[in-house]
Structures are given as C-alpha cells and as structure tokens.
C-alpha cells in the first residue's frame, strides 16, 4: 500500500485559511496516529496540543480523536480518568472530529466490538467496527464530500468502520461510490461534531481538517 510514505512529505492543500483567531485544538494522545493530526492541524493555522489529562482537555477549543485501536483507546480513557470529562465536554458543545477509531468512539452505538468498549455518544449514529475487513483489506478511493470544494477527496481506509444508521439531525457527508460497499456511509456531521471512516491526515489533502478548524472550531474559540 502507498499511503504511509505520504506522511513525511505531505503538503498543504491550496485552500485559503480563514484569518483571525488561532484556536487551540487538542489531539487525544493515548494511542494511534497522533503526530499526523498534530501536523495537519498546525498546517491549518491552529495551535495543536496533545491531550492526555483532564486539565489539558479543559483548555482546548476543539478535539481530534485519531485513528488507532478503538477498544484500547476506550480502556485508556478510563485509565487516564478522561472518559466522563470528555463525555461532559461533548455534551457542553465541544467541537470534535474523529477519524476511523475516532468515529467509533464518537458513536452512540457500536456493533462488532467488545462488551466493555465505552462509546462517547458524540453523534447519534450506529457504527460497525472493522466493517470493511482486516488490515489486508485496506484500500483507497475517491469520495465526493459535501461542503468541500476542489473535487473528490482521496480517502484511505485502514481496518475501517462504516455507519450503519444515523439519527435525526445527523448530516451524511460522504458515502462509498461503488463496489461491494457502495452506498455505505463513511463521513457524518452533527452540529459541531464530525467523523470519517477514513484517514485524511495521511494524504496531504487538508480540506477535511480545514472544514473542522475553520467552520466548527474557530467561530467558537475563546479569544
């Protein structure tokens, strides 16, 4: 597969950055691809910080939940006493974005996972873990993504989930265009919380991160 070498030489997508407030955006740094999200957020004009403690969570204007292993991250949220504080901040309107495992964590219901996995209920959706198959089934495709200019988004799926169903008020942003999984939901948004099945942080295309930073976090950031 070809995507991991892109990380070190990724270049910003030529979208104009909205000037003004420089929001502090945390990346949950318990497990997963934390570094890639930190780099993407910095390229979008945010002040990115790793989050491992409640005090760090309390200080951010938005939060990214990265890809990784969802059950491991769920357990570590409890170990680090972050599970309930994060749930409370999400209920209070904290803007959040989750990719892959982050999507699973933000769900209200998760299928095909361990019984002790704790979801955050940030988006009213049912997500199926590892829906596209094992690591060897990872793939790339182009997606039409609602709200993004500049053509299709190149999406990288690695042991990815998909969304089985969404509740009222959840906007579907992207679906799989063709193949056996055609029509499956892979990107959603509900208010200030967004999630994707795929990993935009590894492709060099920053449009998904810019959407999060500029339309979901920056308008609510503390001056």
UniProtKB/TrEMBL annotation:
GO terms for biological process: L-glutamine catabolic process; pyridoxal phosphate biosynthetic process; pyridoxine metabolic process. CDD domains: GATase1_PB. L-glutamine binds at residues 68-70, 129, 158-159. GO terms for molecular function: glutaminase activity; pyridoxal 5'-phosphate synthase (glutamine hydrolysing) activity. InterPro entries: Class_I_gatase-like (IPR029062), PdxT/SNO (IPR002161), PdxT/SNO_CS (IPR021196). The keyword Protein biosynthesis does not apply. It catalyses: aldehydo-D-ribose 5-phosphate + D-glyceraldehyde 3-phosphate + L-glutamine = pyridoxal 5'-phosphate + L-glutamate + phosphate + 3 H2O + H(+); L-glutamine + H2O = L-glutamate + NH4(+). GO terms for cellular component: cytosol; glutaminase complex. Pathway: Cofactor biosynthesis; pyridoxal 5'-phosphate biosynthesis. Keywords: Glutamine amidotransferase, Hydrolase, Lyase, Pyridoxal phosphate. The active site is at residues 100, 199, 201. Its EC number is 4.3.3.6, 3.5.1.2. Catalyzes the hydrolysis of glutamine to glutamate and ammonia as part of the biosynthesis of pyridoxal 5'-phosphate. The resulting ammonia molecule is channeled to the active site of PdxS. Belongs to the glutaminase PdxT/SNO family. In the presence of PdxS, forms a dodecamer of heterodimers. Only shows activity in the heterodimer. This is Pyridoxal 5'-phosphate synthase subunit PdxT. It comes from Nocardia uniformis.
């Amino acid at each position: 597969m070809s995507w991991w070498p892109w990380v070190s030489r990724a270049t910003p997508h030529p979208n104009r950055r909205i000037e003004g407030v420089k929001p502090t955006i945390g990346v949950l740094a318990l497990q997963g691809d934390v570094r890639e999200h930190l780099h993407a957020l910095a390229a979008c004009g945010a002040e990115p910080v790793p989050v491992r403690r409640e005090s760090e969570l309390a200080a951010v204007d938005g939060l990214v939940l990265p890809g990784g292993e969802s059950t491991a991250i769920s357990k570590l949220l409890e170990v680090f006493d972050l599970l309930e504080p994060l749930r409370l901040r999400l209920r209070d309107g904290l803007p959040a974005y989750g990719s892959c495992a982050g999507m699973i964590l933000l769900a209200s219901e998760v299928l095909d996972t361990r019984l002790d996995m704790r979801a955050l209920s940030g988006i009213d959706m049912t997500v199926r873990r590892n829906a596209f198959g094992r690591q060897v089934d990872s793939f790339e495709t182009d997606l039409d993504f609602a709200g993004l200019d500049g053509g299709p988004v190149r999406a990288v799926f690695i042991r990815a989930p998909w969304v089985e169903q969404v509740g009222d008020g959840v906007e579907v942003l992207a679906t799989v265009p063709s193949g056996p999984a055609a029509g499956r939901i892979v990107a959603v948004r509900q208010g200030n919380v967004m999630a994707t099945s795929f990993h935009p942080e590894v492709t060099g295309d920053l449009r998904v991160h810019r959407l999060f930073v500029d339309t979901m976090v920056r308008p609510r950031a503390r001056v």
